Amino acid sequence: MIDRGNAESLVFFCMALFIHFYQQERRFLGNILLSAAIAMKLFPIFFLVLMIADKKYKDTIYTIALALLWTLISMALLKGGIAANAEFILKGGNMGGNIALSTFLDRNALLQRGVSLFSILKIFLILTNTIQNVDMNTCLRIYKGVAGICLIALSIYVVAVESTFWKRTTLLVFAMILFPHISADYRLIHIFIPMFLFVNADHHPKTHYFYAVMFALLLIPKDYILLPDIRSDSNAEDISIAVIVNAVMMLSVMA
């Protein structure tokens, strides 16, 4: 992420500070930071579930309004103004215009080096030689539908059942990493947020060892075995078992 100067670092910075101020009940600063993160990349909107769970409905509305304000100001400053940039985003121009991202979703052996559950589905289709018999557009639509249902169910669980703050945050962070159909491996930096909360929380002695081990293992690179016949956008067969192992580990913690 540092090597590429990726904007994900700014998103992480805003989200980490949001959690810090949220715990301190400094709502105004928290709302500004979370809204900025949402305006940069939409997936931090998952964190609004924390506010809803704590019945902070006004803060939820303020954050959404601020995110819209940041977005409108940004579009107004960019070439073409609000109308042209809004049309570009709503038509998916930011995704469809990127050949590398769109080809990850095609009926080929090209895979994103990342942590999306969609990537695991594509690996399965490639290794079983069934990908040529599958309509990937239909497959993607089904995946998005299932992911959306899972996200709704998880949000209900966070709001209605789970009361431990670090566990709520872990579920939401892992969901925003795993569920999008495009999710690069540098997004694993967001794991530092629930990890920090976990380290500083009180735990039941019979369960905290499992979580400690899982968080520790998530920090370790896992490119020990390369998957055959699967290429990245570099056109080299350099996709490893890390794509599968990291996702399985996060799913285990969520379960």
What does this structure look like?
This protein has 255 residues and is mostly helical. The chain has 2 domains: 1-91, no CATH class; 99-255, no CATH class. 62% of the residues lie in helices and 0% in strands. The chain has 13 helices and no strands. The chain has helices at residues 8-23, 27-40, 48-53, 57-77, 81-90, 93-96, 99-103, 117-127, 136-160, 165-178, 192-199, 208-218, 242-254. Helix 10 runs antiparallel to helix 11 and helix 10 (165-178) packs antiparallel against helix 13. The longest helix has 25 residues, at 136-160. The relative contact order is 0.11.
Total beta strands? 0
Rounded average pLDDT = 89
Per the principal axes of the C-alpha atoms, what is the gross shape?
globular
* Domain module count: 2
Strand content: under 5%
Radius of gyration using CA atoms only: 19 Å
Query: What low-confidence regions span 5 or more consecutive residues with pLDDT below 50?
Result: none
- What series of H and E elements makes up the topology? HHHHHHHHHHHHH
Q: What's the tally of helices?
A: 13
N-to-C span: 29 Å
Summarize the main sheet. Answer: none
Instruction: Output the structural class.
Output: mainly alpha
Q: Report helical residue fraction.
A: 55-70%
Q: Layout of helices and strands, plus pairs?
A:
Layout: H1 8-23, H2 27-40, H3 48-53, H4 57-77, H5 81-90, H6 93-96, H7 99-103, H8 117-127, H9 136-160, H10 165-178, H11 192-199, H12 208-218, H13 242-254
List key phrases describing it.
globular, 255 residues, 13 helices, mainly alpha
Q: Brief overview, please?
A:
The chain is mainly alpha-helical and 255 residues long.
